Amino acid sequence: MATDHDHDHDHDHDTQILDAIDRFLKTEVRPHVKRLEQADEYPAEIVEQMKKMGLFGCIIPAEYGGLGLSTATYAAVVARIASVWMSISGIINSHLIMAATVLRSGTEAQKRDLLPRFASGELRGGIGLTEADAGTDLQAIRTRAVREGDHYVINGSKTWITNSLHGGCLALLVKTDPQAEPRHKGMSLFITEKGPGFVVTRKLKKLGYRGIDTCELQFDNYRVPADRLIGGVEGRGLQQVLSGLELGRINVAARGLGVATASLRDAVAYSQQRKTFGKPICEHQAIQLKLGEMGTRVEAARLLVEAAARAYDRGERCDMEAGMAKYFATEAAMDNALECMRIHGAYGYSPEFDVERYYRDAPLLLIGEGTNEMQRLIIARQLIQRYPA
Ligand SMILES: Cc1cc2nc3c(=O)[nH]c(=O)nc-3n(C[C@H](O)[C@H](O)[C@H](O)COP(=O)(O)OP(=O)(O)OC[C@H]3O[C@@H](n4cnc5c(N)ncnc54)[C@H](O)[C@@H]3O)c2cc1C
């Protein structure tokens, strides 16, 4: 049973971690964001620092070499990082969604083999689901794995896969039985490390979310050992991916909270400096209305993210809570970025100010980890299921 002493200890530990993150962001990240983002350059040195801080293992339990943070603390870490540079939160987040599939669905041997390497950041990666003709409708994927002795041979292509150029592996969703009905019974998930036949064909250009690599991939008779089939059983791939999505949605929601917070912070500061008609613009009611809405959105987003993260930490079903947090916090990011831009006038349209980046980064959050159209459908279905008439 948890005692008050344990609780205080956890609280101190979390505060120390959040303080260390703030120092790291101030000295190692903020001074370099503009240059790296504008050059679309991978932040290799920042990644080395993140490895040292243990961030690649922040939610992996200590017994497998991670920091073992609660989801609530992890969400706070992600929001802080995203309030300075959203791209680097993606380098950890997609990696941890991959790690979570092993943690939740892997065999004990897979956990012992892979999780310590994931936690140290020695082996980094992401998730390979999307194909040119299948995003929301994942059951339509065509990448195929065929068993040959103690290996599977994989052929097909993926697109929009983050961390695939600079990372070393992916949780890769494939079809092991394309004829299966229902279709998801023919889907499986593998941890695929780079090797012959695993080819990055193109790094994609993006509106925002720069510096982090998102690519097209080709699998050409790529051979993966059969013991890399997650859970050791075929046909559970989609279920394994979906079970990781609650966590994925909480962390995208936390990114939204970060971008919404950054937009508010910059708007509050700028509106006190810029003067029109003899007074700072923050004294005009039109600007105050915007600040009032932006601040309220940030606090509401924070509460939704915390509630979803706490439900996840208690082991409760939280697809509705995670969906609400994801939907609201990411729309808050987009709305606050636009309002922040308006408050900056022409300067908001210039890369000299960070708001231009928030405005380009925010839309990804509306799309990734289940589009916000899908989130509202999931919320509605849960409302109907939980409260039958
Ligand atoms: C920068 C970036 C990074 C990404 N990183 C990754 C990654 O690391 N790994 C990965 O696997 N994928 C990644 N993706 C892909 C992303 O997950 C997909 O784009 C997303 O799932 C949506 O799929 P889609 O683009 O095919 O859109 P579609 O599925 O074609 O959807 C198009 C539109 O139709 C709507 N729609 C679809 N079905 C329904 C429905 N049933 N009811 C109502 N509306 C519907 C959608 O909401 C959307 O508005 C990334 C994308 C971007 C932009």
TrEMBL record:
<dbReference type="InterPro" id="IPR006091">
    <property type="entry name" value="Acyl-CoA_Oxase/DH_mid-dom"/>
</dbReference>
<keyword id="KW-0285">Flavoprotein</keyword>
<keyword id="KW-0560">Oxidoreductase</keyword>
<feature type="domain" description="Acyl-CoA dehydrogenase/oxidase N-terminal">
    <location>
        <begin position="13"/>
        <end position="122"/>
    </location>
</feature>
<keyword id="KW-0274">FAD</keyword>
<dbReference type="InterPro" id="IPR046373">
    <property type="entry name" value="Acyl-CoA_Oxase/DH_mid-dom_sf"/>
</dbReference>
<dbReference type="Pfam" id="PF02770">
    <property type="entry name" value="Acyl-CoA_dh_M"/>
</dbReference>
<dbReference type="InterPro" id="IPR009075">
    <property type="entry name" value="AcylCo_DH/oxidase_C"/>
</dbReference>
<feature type="domain" description="Acyl-CoA dehydrogenase/oxidase C-terminal">
    <location>
        <begin position="235"/>
        <end position="383"/>
    </location>
</feature>
<feature type="domain" description="Acyl-CoA oxidase/dehydrogenase middle">
    <location>
        <begin position="127"/>
        <end position="221"/>
    </location>
</feature>
<dbReference type="InterPro" id="IPR037069">
    <property type="entry name" value="AcylCoA_DH/ox_N_sf"/>
</dbReference>
<protein>
    <submittedName>
        <fullName>Acyl-CoA dehydrogenase</fullName>
    </submittedName>
</protein>
<dbReference type="GO" id="GO:0003995">
    <property type="term" value="F:acyl-CoA dehydrogenase activity"/>
</dbReference>
<dbReference type="GO" id="GO:0050660">
    <property type="term" value="F:flavin adenine dinucleotide binding"/>
</dbReference>
<dbReference type="InterPro" id="IPR009100">
    <property type="entry name" value="AcylCoA_DH/oxidase_NM_dom_sf"/>
</dbReference>
<dbReference type="InterPro" id="IPR013786">
    <property type="entry name" value="AcylCoA_DH/ox_N"/>
</dbReference>
<dbReference type="Pfam" id="PF02771">
    <property type="entry name" value="Acyl-CoA_dh_N"/>
</dbReference>
<comment type="similarity">
    <text>Belongs to the acyl-CoA dehydrogenase family.</text>
</comment>
<dbReference type="InterPro" id="IPR006089">
    <property type="entry name" value="Acyl-CoA_DH_CS"/>
</dbReference>
<dbReference type="InterPro" id="IPR036250">
    <property type="entry name" value="AcylCo_DH-like_C"/>
</dbReference>
<dbReference type="Pfam" id="PF00441">
    <property type="entry name" value="Acyl-CoA_dh_1"/>
</dbReference>
